[in-house]
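Exam revision sheet. Question 4 asks you to relate a sequence to its structure. Input first:
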Amino acid sequence: MKLPSFRPDAADAAMLAVVLMWAANNILIKVTVDILPPLPYVVGRFVIVIALVWGWIAWRRMPARIAMTDRPLLLVAGVCGFGAYNALFTVGIQRTSAFSAALLISLGPIFTMLLARILGQDHPTTAQWLATGLAAAGVLVFVGDKLRAEGFSSAATGDLLTLVAALLFAVYSLAARPLTARYGAVVTTAWAVVIGLLAIAPWGIGPALSQSWLALPLPVWGSLVYAAAISMLIGYSLWAWAMNRSGVARTAPYLFLIPVATGIMSAAALGESFTAAKVGGAMMVLAGTTLVRVLGRRAAAPASAVNETSAPPETALARGAQ
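Answer key, structure tokens:
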């Protein structure tokens, strides 16, 4: 049997650009939060995103009203996917390495599968459960190496915060899916980021108001604008275009290159080193997460091939907000 040939096209180039954008954003966040504390950073980025997204909605005159029955779901999406997720991810990446944060946050699809099973929305196959076990073992190896070397240090705490963020990202994925289908990604994101800002306001507004914003160096402002405009909005637009052109099955695997690219950039730019245990654990996590997605698509393909190709990437905006 002859295997189909792979011919790269413009969609593949776009997805490689997205991988580099989002991996670079992880490095920029890691560097920036050493100067600008995590919570003011998140507040500042949210303000920029709100201005850009709502400005776009106003310019395009897009309807933005959310039905009353969908508002509780929107509240969950905003609090979990933007407020708590971004706060925990940013605090976590300050305490751990950029590679660790990118790797552990990639567990989002596995948490999504587990939550969908608990809610009765999905029925994972035996192979998917085995792949989940492989990824979980990889996390134990990866984080356990740090615990053995450093004890319950700041880096280990950062890893755990990032794991919680990945779980919250999974909650967001399930909540945002029907909202994105009904209102579109732009409107869903516009409201969710406002809710996210309000959710972290009790902890973030005070530090943000006391922050000397005008005294921040220009590279910090560049990092904020990059995270909001380049990584999130342009990155998502390229991802959505590539998905519509080539389908989810062709484009989604590129997301698993983000931890790899982050690790390479982290080693080159930040001098991060990797032990054999960390590399082995990381490979187990990436293999397990990739298999969960690949096996899930194969199981769903006979029943929903059309929907799989045309479904919106409901989690891409949250990834772009990293």
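Marking note for examiners. The chain has 13 helices and no strands.
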